[in-house]
């Protein structure tokens, strides 16, 4: 199964797929590199070409306006960067006809002139939408009109900044330099051995260093990409391969190695140790956060609505998942884990769901989009992230960054924590199939008010209240077997579990007045037989 190693992913993110130039580092089984020399790209332009103008944008650029245009005060990249001022436009008048008699005149919109006709009869002319000037009628400027100013775009001619992926240094009259891929400029002299660093944290140790192309930084050592997953090899990283270990193997998180499954051990439960290492005591909360938003169908009709029914099952499932991961060492182990036949059936149901119904929650990987060089160090636009090659990237909507090299097709993942979701879903399916009656009974007892100050109807209750009811249901299952032999002890535990449920329920205004029904602990223990019979 997929093993989540998010605890180390922040360290490894800086170490993927870079070129190493320092000696004795970056190769197979070598320490990662953290420093390198810079390479000179060339001389930097200092003057704009004749006929163009300078703008400080993009590190210094040269632009030109169309002919007869002047620069405006608008942004150089706007469509109003240049203006052609208002001017007079001339043309020659159009002769329409010769007049044939004295006093004939001209049609509306035309004008008469003695030139161009027979003798003094003259001719008719037209300037269209122009106006008549004082020039002779047969002159090229006999008509004129005023043209309004016209705003236009400027054209980029040259850049005074260094090429993409390089940086400027004033040395040697102004020069451009570049660092190796995935390295960034340090604060030292540009011609020094440590002009570039593999990360801003280079002095913090090999965990932040960079490896040669095709190698990954695994806990401070460069390892060949893809050499993973087999017996005795390291588990594959998230984004390198799914699952992290080959069939028949499980991941030993603490030793970071793939080892064989024990006889009869199922892959799902073999991987719970890794989840426990990461989530610890927060596993119940993490499980609830994972299952809460999922649209999982419950086959159990608890008469409280589909959503609440699903959340009741989810609450019980998360309690059971925590016990299965070892939480039971601090208390009496739950009965589902203590009865061999029941535990074996539950294990089988979980493993079946893990392989089939819940398999869709595994991570899917894709490329990141390159938005070009960051304008300032480590600063990118909204929704983007900075990489050590100096560029800004973004993952598709709904995806997050993996620790895989940013220029691969595995740079982004759609379900970070998918392993927990898949695990929680599997336990949910098994719980829904096997513990229908326990959940029904708990809802029934809450509804009839047997142990509460008032009947409690969970129809329309929110997610937190319904999940708390599921946790109560799981707790009730634990108490069933000891109810007849030790009613006082059961009464104490039942009152505690009821109080825990009520503390959640009272946060909702509709249940603000509910409380545990008054009475002795012993009486509650005796009444617990009602729940035994319900089950």
Q: What can you tell me about this protein's structure?
A:
The structure is a single chain. Helix 5 crosses helix 8 (418-434), helix 9 packs across helix 10 (463-479) and helix 11 packs across helix 12. This protein is elongated. Among the domains are: 6-34 and 198-260, no CATH class; 305-360 and 419-534, no CATH class; 368-414, no CATH class. By secondary structure, it is of the alpha+beta class. It has helices spanning 6-12, 267-270, 272-279, 283-291, 306-324, 335-338, 340-355, 418-434, 436-448, 463-479, 487-505, 521-534; strands at residues 35-36, 39-43, 53-55, 61-64, 70-71, 82-84, 87-91, 94-98, 111-113, 123-126, 131-132, 143-147, 150-152, 155-159, 167-169, 175-178, 184-185, 196-197, 215-218, 221-224, 249-252, 257-260, 365-366, 369-373, 385-386, 391-394, 400-401, 412-413.
| Rg calculated over all Cα atoms | 39 Å
- Structural class of the helices, strands and pairings? alpha+beta
What fraction strand? 15-25%
Strand order of the largest sheet: 1-18-17
Average pLDDT metric? 75
Oligomer: single chain
The largest β sheet comes out as: 3 strands, antiparallel
Number of helical elements:
12
Describe the structure concisely for a colleague.
With 535 residues, the protein is α+β, with helices and mostly antiparallel strands.
List the helices and strands and how they pair.
Elements: H1 6-12, E1 35-36, E2 39-43, E3 53-55, E4 61-64, E5 70-71, E6 82-84, E7 87-91, E8 94-98, E9 111-113, E10 123-126, E11 131-132, E12 143-147, E13 150-152, E14 155-159, E15 167-169, E16 175-178, E17 184-185, E18 196-197, E19 215-218, E20 221-224, E21 249-252, E22 257-260, H2 267-270, H3 272-279, H4 283-291, H5 306-324, H6 335-338, H7 340-355, E23 365-366, E24 369-373, E25 385-386, E26 391-394, E27 400-401, E28 412-413, H8 418-434, H9 436-448, H10 463-479, H11 487-505, H12 521-534
Antiparallel strand pairs: 1-18, 2-16, 3-4, 4-14, 5-6, 6-13, 7-12, 8-10, 9-10, 11-12, 15-16, 17-18, 19-20, 21-22, 23-28, 24-26, 25-26, 27-28
Helix pairs in contact: 4-5, 4-8, 5-8, 5-10, 7-8, 9-10, 10-11, 11-12
């Amino acid at each position: 199964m997929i093993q989540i190693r998010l605890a180390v992913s922040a360290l490894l993110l800086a170490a993927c797929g870079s070129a190493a130039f320092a000696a004795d580092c970056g190769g197979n089984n070598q320490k990662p590199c953290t420093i390198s020399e810079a390479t000179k790209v060339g001389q930097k332009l200092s003057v704009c070409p004749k006929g163009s103008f300078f703008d400080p944008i993009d590190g210094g650029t040269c632009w030109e306006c169309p002919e007869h245009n002047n620069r405006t005060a608008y942004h150089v990249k706007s469509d109003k960067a240049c203006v052609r001022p208002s001017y007079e436009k001339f043309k020659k008048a159009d002769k329409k006809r010769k007049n044939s008699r004295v006093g004939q005149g001209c049609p509306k919109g035309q004008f008469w002139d003695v030139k161009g006709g027979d003798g003094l009869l003259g001719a008719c002319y037209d300037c269209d939408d122009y106006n008549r000037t004082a020039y002779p009628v047969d002159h090229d400027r006999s008509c004129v009109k005023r043209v309004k100013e016209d705003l236009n775009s400027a054209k980029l001619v040259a850049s005074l900044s260094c090429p993409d992926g390089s940086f400027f240094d004033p040395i040697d009259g102004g020069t451009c330099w570049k660092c190796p891929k995935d390295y960034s400029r340090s604060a030292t002299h540009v011609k020094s051995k440590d002009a570039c660093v593999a990360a801003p944290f280079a002095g913090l140790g090999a965990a932040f260093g960079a490896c040669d192309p095709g190698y990954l930084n695994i806990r401070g050592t460069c390892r060949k990409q893809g050499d993973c997953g087999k017996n005795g090899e390291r588990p594959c990283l998230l984004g390198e391969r799914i699952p992290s270990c080959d069939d028949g193997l499980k991941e030993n998180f603490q030793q970071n190695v793939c080892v064989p499954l024990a006889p009869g051990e199922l892959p799902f439960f073999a991987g719970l140790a890794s989840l426990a290492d990461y989530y610890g005591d927060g596993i119940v909360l993490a499980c609830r956060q994972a299952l809460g938003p999922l649209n999982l169908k419950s086959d159990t009709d608890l008469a409280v609505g589909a959503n609440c029914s699903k959340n009741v099952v989810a609450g019980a499932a998360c309690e059971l998942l925590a016990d299965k991961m070892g939480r039971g060492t601090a208390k009496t182990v739950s009965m589902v884990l203590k009865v061999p036949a029941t535990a074996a059936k539950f294990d089988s149901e979980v493993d079946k769901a893990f392989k089939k119904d819940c398999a869709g929650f595994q991570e899917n990987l894709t490329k990141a989009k390159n938005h070009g060089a960051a304008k300032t160090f480590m600063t990118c636009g909204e929704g983007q992230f900075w990489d050590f090659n100096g560029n800004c990237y973004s993952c598709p909507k709904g995806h997050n960054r993996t620790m895989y090299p940013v220029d691969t097709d595995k740079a982004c993942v759609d379900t970070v924590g998918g392993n927990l979701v898949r695990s929680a879903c599997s336990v949910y399916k098994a719980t829904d199939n096997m513990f229908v009656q326990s959940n029904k009974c708990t809802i029934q007892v809450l509804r009839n008010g047997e142990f509460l100050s008032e009947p409690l109807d969970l129809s329309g209750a929110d997610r937190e209240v319904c999940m708390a009811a599921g946790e109560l249901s799981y707790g009730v299952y634990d108490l069933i077997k000891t109810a007849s032999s030790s009613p006082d002890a059961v009464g104490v535990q039942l009152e505690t579990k009821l109080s825990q449920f009520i503390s959640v329920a009272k946060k909702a205004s509709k249940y603000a007045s509910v409380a545990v029904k008054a009475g002795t602990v012993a009486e509650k223990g005796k009444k617990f037989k009602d729940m035994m019979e319900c089950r």
